[in-house]
Design a protein that fits this description.
alpha/beta; Rossmann fold; three-stranded parallel β-sheet; three-stranded antiparallel β-sheet; 12 helices; elongated
């Protein structure tokens, strides 16, 4: 089972879209369910109806899902799991600042029950070290809400996710998420696949769509820019272990878009796109 995560606090960027496309393609190849997870934890910055906009954008790229859920709906489980980790002595209450420099020096790890109860300051909950040199990552913040890492680890466990396909930048999170799940007694093996991020992808997906670029062209540029393929062809033939492009070039997108337009027989398709894109 695979999933992608969307944030209703911002527009979809090119890295978000590529990860969603690859997860969906992987699920199709493996004939497994595909989950869309809405990370709605940041209530103060959520944009009204942005979740529906994001799902509509996925649909334009041929992405459908087996299950949709919102992170906030699992909040009671996040609290329960954090309490369980405290009871099992796998986590501890910490009065140090949340952004205390890593690796954490263990200042609060061995506080007595009396020291904890008699301390009026706000606190976070941290995982205990898995091994020497590991960091004691924060799992619950001072506002009593889970950190993104803890929420992901718990949600993937709850939903039965078996493969995590994400950007290379999240590689360092894997061992922490695994440690959280193992500490909760979860022993389902998790397979990790990492994809490099675009280093210069400043464009938003909606921006490209508004400029008239076809969904097929955008996906083609993100996944397999050396060939001109339809969405269905890409989703069924993309090599998930092949080297992915790390640079997004507008000239490449324009070329691919022109090639896709040439395949359209009906001239009205050409008329709807700006001249600078089709020329």
């Amino acid at each position: 089972m695979l999933r992608c995560t969307l944030s209703p606090t911002r527009d979809l960027n090119l890295n978000d879209l590529r990860i969603a496309l690859l997860n969906f393609a992987f699920a199709k190849h493996a004939n497994e369910p595909f989950i869309v997870r809405i990370d709605d934890a940041d209530k103060t910055n959520i944009i009204e109806d942005k979740d529906r906009d994001l799902l509509d954008t996925l649909a334009l790229f041929g992405i459908s899902y087996t299950q949709l859920y919102y992170q906030s709906h699992n909040f009671k489980y996040h609290l329960q799991f954090a309490s369980t980790l405290l009871d099992k002595k796998k986590a501890f209450i910490c009065f140090c600042a949340e952004d205390k420099a890593s690796p954490y020096d263990g200042a609060c790890e061995n506080l007595s029950s009396e020291e904890v109860l008699n301390n009026p300051r706000p606190f976070v909950i941290r995982m205990k070290h898995q091994a020497e040199g590991d960091d004691c990552c924060v799992i619950m913040k001072t506002d009593k809400y889970p950190t993104p890492l803890f929420a992901r680890a718990c949600d993937d466990m709850l939903q039965g996710v078996t493969t995590i396909l994400c950007e290379e930048a999240h590689r360092s999170d894997a061992s922490k998420e695994e440690w959280i799940r193992q500490s909760l007694g979860y022993d389902q093996a998790m397979h990790y696949v990492y994809v490099p991020s675009f280093q210069d992808a400043t464009y938003r997906v909606q921006q490209l769509l508004d400029e008239g670029f076809m969904p097929e062209s955008i996906a083609n540029c993100l996944l397999m820019p050396s060939q001109i393929l339809t969405l269905e062809e890409m989703l069924t033939s993309v090599d998930l272990h092949a080297k992915m492009p790390t640079s997004f070039e507008m000239e490449t997108l324009r070329f691919i878009n022109r090639e896709h337009l040439k395949k359209r027989d009906d001239s009205h398709h050409v008329k709807k796109y700006p001249k600078e894109i089709v020329k």
